[in-house]
Amino acid sequence: MQEKIVVPYAPILIESTRSIGYSFEAAVADIIDNSVSAGATEIRICFMSQDPQWLCIEDDGWGMTADELESAMRYGSQSSQNTRRKNDLGRFGLGLKMASLSQCRKVTVLTKKDGTICAACWDLDYIVQQGNWSLKFFAEDEIKCMHGWPWLDMHDSGTVVIWEHFDRLKQGSSKVQKAFDEKIEITRKHVALVFHRFLSDEGPKNRLSIYFNGETVTGIDPFLTKHPATQPLSEQILRIGTEEIHVKPYVLPYLNKMSKKDLNSIGGKDELRQQQGFYIYRSRRLIIWGTWFRLIKQNELGKLARVRVDIPNSLDSVWEIDIKKSTASLPHFIKKNLADIVENTVGRSERVYKYRGRNVQSDNLIHIWNLIDERGKLQYQINRELPILNMLEYHLDEEGSSLLESFIKMMEDAFPYADVYYRMARSEADITETVLDTNDVYAIADQMIQQAISTEANVGVFLKTIDKMDFFKKYPNVIRQIREVYGND
Question: Is 477 contained in some domain?
Fold first, then answer.
């Protein structure tokens, strides 16, 4: 047998690894992971969106020596099989390089430790020119001309990562500055959510501060843990060997108990249904959210349910955490435990909706007006689950939805109970039931179906249940016609 060492051709390998699938915000978060792992308490993201664009991530962590920097710049500098510190957010030893070069063609790292500053750079154009793994190092006078030098000069230790030459950004947009600014804004929100437990830590010694061009990033708490109407459920501990997984379910407050700020912090009203599910944290860093891992389907009544799951980095292989730390698989042997927790949590979420007063009407019709028994006090309320009302809300922005809700509440509050009672008591003949022209009723049904088609909703379900809506039940000819027209679609 013969043996030969075959070294990968640097230009081709590096170019291919750029397409691993990092988004801009995920790449920035990966660099922040390194800063957190290095004990940083302050991280500053500085950037210039005008041409030439650049982005600089500065931290006050413990920094690196020249040898440590060379190791950190090497691809595969640390095995995923190695035992990591409890608070180490790294995974494969590839994030610094692959995350950075997925977004730009040049990444430079400046670092300071024990009073000495050193710098190294991966420049893809230089690597292509040399045809080899040519890592650049810089002298002190060169380093003083770089972004990040003033930061290191005023700190005892720290690291600066600089991104330059955003080739893919320029290839993908004719308005590069606008596209860059949009990515920065998405990244700001992403960072506020992903690192919210670090940003909001009640212990000053553990709290992390992050800034975007000097502006403080405030953590986004997806559970609204400080809201008085949030329902925190009992924490449970699942064990895999000697390791523990902490599971803490929450049920969010009903919408009318949330302020505009509350809604924004959980993704907005439109995203509420999509954001239900598990929130998986690895060493307090959010990596995956808004999924039930196929244990159940997302549904309207369960949209207030969110389950926080804390896993240690020692279980990365069990959860199949990927390089980007953005995907994972639910371990088979804890599915049953989590399924029981999900069932209980979603049940609580449903009860938030179902006990907003008991619906007195016991038939199977979908009513426009629901008669509600609120602990003995009867009142009529507009059915918020009406398909046409949901369709209307779909076309409104947050301000429009808020105005619509206010208008509905005014209608409910102004319901003329006394007047109706008085007139009905005098003579039932005084109150006549309004009957619309069938063409108008057909137009309403047709409009609802067209909207359902445009949003890829299930038209078959609508056709099957149209006779269950008390509005359409009075118009059997319309029901028959609409089913004949759309029944075969």
Answer: no
Q: Which residues contact 40 (CB under 8 A, 6 or more apart)?
A: 59, 60, 61, 158, 208
User: Are 267 and 205 within one domain?
Assistant: no
Q: Is residue 296 part of a domain?
A: yes
Same structural domain, 169 and 205: yes
Q: Are residues 68 and 199 in the same domain?
A: yes
**The overall pTM is greater than 0.90:** no
CATH classification at residue 337: 3.30.230
Query: Could you read off the pLDDT of 301-360 as tens digits, one per residue?
Result: 678 889 999 988 887 777 777 676 667 778 877 888 888 888 888 777 766 655 555 555
For residues 100 and 154, what is the distance between their CA atoms, to the nearest angstrom? 25
Quote the pLDDT of residue 483. 85
> Does 146 lie in the same domain as 269?
no
**Residue 237 forms part of a structural domain:** yes
Among candidate residues 244, 225, 222, the one with its CA nearest the CA of residue 310: 244
At 2, give phi and psi (nearest 5°): -110, 150
Give one word for 267, left, alpha or beta, with left for phi > 0 and alpha for psi -120 to 50.
left
Residue 155 has pLDDT above 60, yes or no: yes
Q: What is the DSSP letter of 83?
A: P
pLDDT (tens digit per residue) in 430-476: 555 667 788 888 888 888 888 777 766 677 777 887 888 877 887 88
Please tell me whether residues 176 and 239 are part of one structural domain. Answer: no
Query: For the chain, how many structural domains are there in total?
Result: 2
C-alpha–C-alpha distance, residues 51 and 279, integer Å: 38
CB neighbour list of residue 24: distance below 8 Å, 6 or more residues apart:
103, 183, 186, 187
Alpha-carbon distance 435 to 419, whole Å? Answer: 21
Q: Are 112 and 157 in contact (CB under 8 A)?
A: yes
Range(s) of the domain holding residue 135: 10-216
